[in-house]
Fold this sequence. Notes:
three-stranded antiparallel β-sheet; CATH 2.40.50.840
Amino acid sequence: MPAWHAALTAAAAAGDPYYLQCTACGTATLPPRGHCPNCGATTLRIRPLSATGTVASFTEIHISTPRFADATPYTVVVADFDEGIRLTGQLRGTDAVEVGDRVAIGADEADDGERFLTFEPA
């Protein structure tokens, strides 16, 4: 995984998720990058991300990569945050989810030691 992903999942696991915001135009962005995708400015600052987002979409995975094969079936959620960020992660804590539900962001660790984003009902 890239270093930015490890930093983001560590922050989410600690309860401090974040995103980058352009100081020139206010655009919110993830993954971290060296310039704003909207205006091209190079002045981006780290900002706290809301602890909860809204389910925009979800799907149940029955056939997985080897990394998550023992966890199938599992649900993957796409969640929108108030800051304009959209993230994807595995659903935890319930088997039932609907578009519009609120979910809390977190992180979990796979058997190989790498972290990944998770969501739980909020």
